[in-house]
Amino acid sequence: MPTVAPLDLDGHCIAAAWLGSVPAFAMADGLVHRLDNGHRTTEAHDGLLAAVPSLDGKTLITGGEDGRVCVLSADGAIREIAHLGRKWVTALAAGPRDAVAYASGRVAHVRLPDGSVKEFAHPRTVEGLAFAPKGMRIAVARYNGATLHFPAAAGKPVELEWAGAHTAATFSPDGNFLVTAMQENALHGWKLADGKHMRMAGYPAKVKSMSWAPKGRWLASSGAPAAICWPFLTKDGPIGKAPVELGTRGDAMVTCVAFHTTDEILAIGYADGMVLGARVADQKEILLRRAGNGAITSLVWDGEGQRIAFGSEAGDCGVIDVAG
């Protein structure tokens, strides 16, 4: 049976992460808590708005109301890599070779591997950022679609249009698709080779969490009383296909999803704090954590796929050892 090591903190957990083998919990008040031979705390920001792990899983990138972008190491050391003055850093993305994208207002900034910074202004607020899995390319989620930039090269960006507010973006692991979450209880996708649209609608709530299966065959999402998993098994992705629903509950909405590092097993967090595990192949479920305080806001597997760090909007955090 899975075992849970709880960590009760104050406030909203923006992101849980693994810094190597050390679980970390980035909170809205700007504190990052680490379980490293005891409970240790680093003050990263005066108000934290976004946090994402680096691609190598060794550091946590954070952005805050203080206009700073920082990198936190497993030992608690913190390094500032950008400062935008009084502007809030509202979105982050981690890229290859320690590249970092960060946004404030209508401007997206990309810090390239050599330390130089490129800026990209947009007509409306930048809502979400994502790096492509191959090459130096970023997607900006914005009002009425998404924009693709190539920060290290000259040339015009690629505009992907679809009416409505797009609030987050994610590339498929093979780089063939871009999917955005929308303000209007839907996902929207583009097949990048030919611009075909993928409408993924019917959610009763906004989609605030998306996670790709390790080989990119499925995209899991929150926003319903089950985890909605869209099939990307063919070259046209989910066009004309129905999703698979995992972890269906009539009494609580799914608020967070996270696929296992190597297997098509999904960790599913709910509005009441419960966490389930579900396997795509046979939809078999296992209870990982009973209901607690506050909706689950973050779930992340460790590198070995044995433990899950979780956080909630009420500061109900901890680590689940799946093997017990």
Automatic annotation (TrEMBL):
Query: What name does this protein carry?
Result: WD40 repeat
Q: Which organism is it from?
A: Aquamicrobium aerolatum DSM 21857
Question: Record's Pfam families?
Answer: WD40
Q: Which PANTHER family match?
A: TRANSCRIPTION INITIATION FACTOR TFIID, TRANSCRIPTION INITIATION FACTOR TFIID SUBUNIT 5
